[in-house]
């Protein structure tokens, strides 16, 4: 499959410039205002959220692969490339991969733009042409899960055939990608609205911490002897090291990383950067600031005063304001609905190329980054000597 994260040598500035070119401003709030073209971020930012239960879940998934015929992979529509986890791909395709089918489900479609410029068709065509999946489905909070259920039934019937013990499926993805919600919706759609929820859900990542028990989502077919389809919920699995800090900010902004691990003001600043690239009018006029701004402190001070996030003496609480505005954007609450990744043939091909590289541990990644920095320093020194 594919790996959306750039190499350590790729700078945050170059990625931000790419985003700036991809974003088309909707309006011009102030002719004198110029948004930042890049978003420099310290390479020292936290770039790992690979916890102990992530590792355990991955090992348990590997042990169950011999009984699994179908993978339901959830990815966040707001970051369709960045939420593409190569560690899951390499782990779940290591044993009898040809015998397992895959359905890719892009969740949170309702939080993306109504007019996606053909991005859904581009993603679907790419995955199907490359035979990454048997089906690609886009699912939002208000959309019917029937399309996913029908895809599951079709794959089970046409690709796998009748299974006397039932078809076993795993639902996988990054933390907070909507796996448990998908399982509950499939069960209610397939078994009737009267059934109770099979998996616990929540707004924060890490609600599911171990593999669940198989849950039936498709009734048995007595005419063929097929026992239906069972799905196992799994914990969200992060990658050991995110090589690019901008990708880490994207993951933090949509909620794939536990709030607070990446400084909330930094996440809010990245949101402000994205809003300015598209349309400062998304926040101007809401009483936060007098006009568009590139200053996160000015923006958050205005938000804090507007929402009452004040401390002693009326001091604006920037962290609280940052948390509030990020949550507002995540919920689609009037700050625009847009995709943070650029999706093109080039970026998709790059993602596939990166997926073929083995996932690095934190220590391996840090060592590689040090070696690359030394190489760049040596190259600059040689250039200076030659001059």
Automatic annotation (TrEMBL):
Record region (Disordered): 16-37, 363-387
For this UniProt record, the keywords arranged alphabetically read as follows: GTP-binding, Nucleotide-binding
Q: One Pfam family for this entry, by name?
A: MMR_HSR1
List, alphabetically, the GO terms of the cellular component aspect: mitochondrion
In the record, biological process GO terms are:
mitochondrial translation
Show the GO MF annotations.
GTP binding; GTPase activity
Enumerate composition-biased segments (Basic and acidic residues). 366-375
Question: Which InterPro entries does the UniProt record give?
Answer: GTP-bd, GTP-bd_ortho_bundle_sf, P-loop_NTPase
Please give the name of this protein.
Answer: Putative mitochondrial GTPase
UniProt organism field: Coniochaeta pulveracea
Q: What is the lineage of its organism?
A: Eukaryota, Fungi, Dikarya, Ascomycota, Pezizomycotina
Name of the gene this protein is made from = MTG1
């Amino acid at each position: 499959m594919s790996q959306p994260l750039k190499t350590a040598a790729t700078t945050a500035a170059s990625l931000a410039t790419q985003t700036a070119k991809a974003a088309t401003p909707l309006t011009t709030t102030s002719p004198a205002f110029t948004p930042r073209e890049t978003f420099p971020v310290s390479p020292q930012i936290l770039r790992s959220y690979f916890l102990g239960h992530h590792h355990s879940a991955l090992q348990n998934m590997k042990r169950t692969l011999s009984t699994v015929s179908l993978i339901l992979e959830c990815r966040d529509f707001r970051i369709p490339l960045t939420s593409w986890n190569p560690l899951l791909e390499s782990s779940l395709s290591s044993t009898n991969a040809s015998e397992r089918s895959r359905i890719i489900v892009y969740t949170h479609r309702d939080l993306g733009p109504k007019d996606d410029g053909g991005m859904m068709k581009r993603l679907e065509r790419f995955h199907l042409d490359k035979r990454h999946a048997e089906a690609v489905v886009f699912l939002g909070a208000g959309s019917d899960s029937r399309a996913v259920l029908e895809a599951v039934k079709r794959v089970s019937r046409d690709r796998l055939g009748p299974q006397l013990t039932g078809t076993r499926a795993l639902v996988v993805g990054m933390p907070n990608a909507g796996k448990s919600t998908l399982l509950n919706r499939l069960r209610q759609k397939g078994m009737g609205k009267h059934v109770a929820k099979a998996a616990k859900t929540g707004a924060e990542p890490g609600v599911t911490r171990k593999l669940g028990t198989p849950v039936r989502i498709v009734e048995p077919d007595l005419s063929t002897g097929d026992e239906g389809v069972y799905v196992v919920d799994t914990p969200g699995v992060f990658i050991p090291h995110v090589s690019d800090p901008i990708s880490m900010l994207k993951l933090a902004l949509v909620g794939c990383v536990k709030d607070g691990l990446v400084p909330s003001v930094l996440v809010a600043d990245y949101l402000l950067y994205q809003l300015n690239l598209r349309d400062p009018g998304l926040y101007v006029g809401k009483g936060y600031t007098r006009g568009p701004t590139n200053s996160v402190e000015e923006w958050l001070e205005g938000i804090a005063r507007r929402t009452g996030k004040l401390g002693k003496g009326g001091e604006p609480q920037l962290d609280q304001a940052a948390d509030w505005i990020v949550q507002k954007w995540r919920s689609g609450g009037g700050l625009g609905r847009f995709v943070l990744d650029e999706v093109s043939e080039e970026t998709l091909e790059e993602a596939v190329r990166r997926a073929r590289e083995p996932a690095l541990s934190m220590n391996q990644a840090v060592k590689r980054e040090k070696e690359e920095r030394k190489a760049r320093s040596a190259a600059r020194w040689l250039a200076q000597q030659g001059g």
